[in-house]
Specification:
The protein is of the alpha/beta class. It has two domains: about 80 residues, Winged helix-like DNA-binding domain superfamily/Winged helix DNA-binding domain (Arc Repressor Mutant, subunit A), CATH 1.10.10.10; about 200 residues, D-Maltodextrin-Binding Protein, domain 2 (3-Layer(aba) Sandwich), CATH 3.40.190.290. About 40% of the residues lie in helices and about 25% in strands. The protein contains ten helices and ten strands. The strands form two sheets. Strands 4-3-5-10-6-9-7-8 form an eight-stranded mixed sheet, with helices on both faces. Helix 1 crosses helix 2 and helix 5 packs across helix 10.
């Protein structure tokens, strides 16, 4: 049974004529007649009562017509929906962003992409990179912009990643702090300071703690938060200092942004589940990000 046969059948039943149906569908009458005859043979029933001028539905034909109209309407809706997805006039992308990557130029690119394709729905999930990796693996997200460990062996084998660059991590101090005018600082100098760090589901927290341990510093962690805005407010209020992406501190007069000695950089990447199917919309976003960042 073919869709074309069903189209012929519905057209004949509507016009009550094989001749008129053939004219409307721009085919020969024998083509329509043969298609309907084969359909009847396949079903084992007679669909039309034929005479010289008209063709009316049999009782079985009427029942068949009622069901086929529903099916063909659903097929038409499905074709329309798929066409809209192909043309990027509808669809959604589930994308994750971590606290560290959320302040990168990528957020600007997401806003630009949204303006280029206003009919697409960008559903953002803000979590730590480790949580985002798990959600990718479980199929809850299409894409995620995540932090990476400098050790490539740490990248899950279940994910495909496209490296997008790196972010400098700096010491964030309130403007009244005694070290506010320093050109750079070693972590050992800050050993007695209370720190506000990201939570355990954030890979950058592990990277930062590894840096502490490498310099034989046991940090005093007073608070944990994955919200940059909350962390910054806590710093201003004197609850502690933090290590934040340099971009999160740019042009903010409430903070002193001090480079680490030696500097600390955290790589970031666009990740997706390996061997998973990406929608046309998601593939378009991947290409947009790659062309914007990697071909500059």
């Amino acid at each position: 049974m073919e869709l074309k046969q069903l189209e012929y059948f519905l057209t004949v039943s509507k016009l009550k004529s094989f001749t008129l149906a053939a004219e409307q569908m721009y085919v020969s009458q024998p083509c329509v007649t043969t298609a309907i005859k084969r359909l009847e043979e396949e079903l084992g029933i007679q669909l039309f009562i034929r005479n010289k001028k008209t063709a009316s539905l049999t009782a079985e034909g009427q029942v068949f017509s009622n069901h086929i109209e529903i099916i063909m309407n659903d097929v038409s809706k499905a074709i329309t929906t798929v066409t809209e997805l192909k043309n990027l006039s509808s669809g959604s992308i589930r994308i994750g962003i971590s606290p560290v990557t959320g302040v990168s130029v990528l957020t600007f690119l997401l806003a630009k992409f949204r303006s280029l394709y206003p009919s697409l729905d960008l559903a953002l999930c803000e979590e730590g990179s480790l949580s985002l990796q798990k959600q990718l693996e479980e199929g809850q997200l299409d894409l995620a912009i995540i932090s990476l460990s400098s050790d490539i062996k740490q990248i899950p084998e279940t994910l495909d990643v496209i490296s997008l660059g790196k972010q400098e991590i700096r010491i964030a101090l309130p403007t009244y702090h005694m070290f506010k005018d320093k050109n750079k600082l070693k972590l050992s100098t800050l050993a007695k300071e209370p720190f506000i760090l990201f939570k355990e589901n954030c890979l950058s927290q592990k990277i930062i703690l590894d840096r502490f341990h490498a310099e034989n510093v046991d940090p005093s962690i007073s608070l944990s938060s994955n919200s940059l805005q909350t962390t910054k407010r806590l710093i201003v209020c004197g609850a502690g200092i933090s290590l934040l992406p340099a971009e999160a501190l740019e042009n903010d007069q409430n903070f002193s942004s001090i480079p680490l000695d030696p500097p600390l950089y955290i790589p970031f990447a666009l990740a997706s589940k390996k061997n998973s199917h990406l929608s046309h919309a998601a593939e378009t976003l991947v290409d947009f990000i790659k062309n914007s960042l990697l071909n500059e």
